[in-house]
Amino acid sequence: MKVDQRYAWPLTVTEAIAIQEQLRNQVITEDQFQETIQYVAGVDMGFEANGTISRAAVAVLNFPDLQVIETTLAYRPTSFPYIPGFLSFREIPAVLDALEKVQTIPDIILCDGQGIAHPRRLGIASHLGLLLDLPTIGVAKSLLIGKHEELPETRGNWQPLIHRGEIIGAALRSRTGVKPVYVSSGHKVSLSTAINYVLRCTPKYRLPETTRVADKLASARLRK
DNA sequence: GCGACAG
DNA sequence: ATCTTGTCGC
């Protein structure tokens, strides 16, 4: 798919904050996509050579069957350090490279990380969704900000994630008896819809099949 | 000022 | 994220 790569990436945290503050108002947290979802994609990142090389993998699966349709891989020098709250500036460049190689344009992308469950409401899922103008959902393995009540052990239960009196996402039990995942709107997807799709993409394991496939492809262990 | 802190 | 073997539990 075509990806606009003319985007100017920041070199400092100060510049990054300015970009986040400017983009946060453009994020849409309501459903804004056609009802017929045919393809869902997942992205995964890996790093090599002491973190100097970024490796991005994209997996496109059909929906709701979740059969793998296509996968792509891309490398590029890492240009931004890992700083909590600024993950997108470190990972999105390589992700865009991998997405450029994709033939099948996904209807929704599930990202490894937060959507609006972010200090300035612009986690990696929201940022990527804005750049691509595609619906995105944030699915994180751990919490960045916010608090939530305990939730029942059985799959499907969830509790709202609260930050400064706002519901920014949900702690969702994607599998019975395991730690919850943190779901939030990325762009053009509401929270309830996001939860719905995450559950439909999580038939067996804690993480969505999309990210699991991408992870397998980019697994450092298997590449060694 | 002291912790917390996506991947 | 990454460094890494076996091990506990359903």
Q: What does this protein structure show overall?
A:
By secondary structure, this protein is of the alpha+beta class. It has one domain (13-223): 2-Layer Sandwich (archaeoglobus fulgidus dsm 4304 fold). Helix content is 26%, strand content 27%. The chain has 6 helices and 8 strands; from the N terminus they run αβββαβαββββααα. An 8-stranded mixed β-sheet has the order 3-2-1-4-5-8-7-6, sandwiched between helices. A hairpin with an 8-residue loop joins β7 (166-172) and β8. It binds 2 DNA strands through residues 45-47, 50-51, 82-85, 87-88, 90-91, 112-114, 117-118, 123-124, 138, 140-145, 177, 182, 220-221.
SSE map:
Elements: H1 13-23, E1 39-48, E2 53-62, E3 68-77, H2 87-100, E4 108-112, H3 124-132, E5 136-140, E6 158-163, E7 166-172, E8 181-187, H4 191-200, H5 209-218, H6 220-223
Parallel strand pairs: 1-4, 4-5
Antiparallel strand pairs: 1-2, 2-3, 5-8, 6-7, 7-8
The chain binds two DNA strands through strand 1 and helix 2.
Binding site for Mg(2+): 44, 112
GO biological process, one term: DNA repair
Function: DNA repair enzyme involved in the repair of deaminated bases. Selectively cleaves double-stranded DNA at the second phosphodiester bond 3' to a deoxyinosine leaving behind the intact lesion on the nicked DNA.
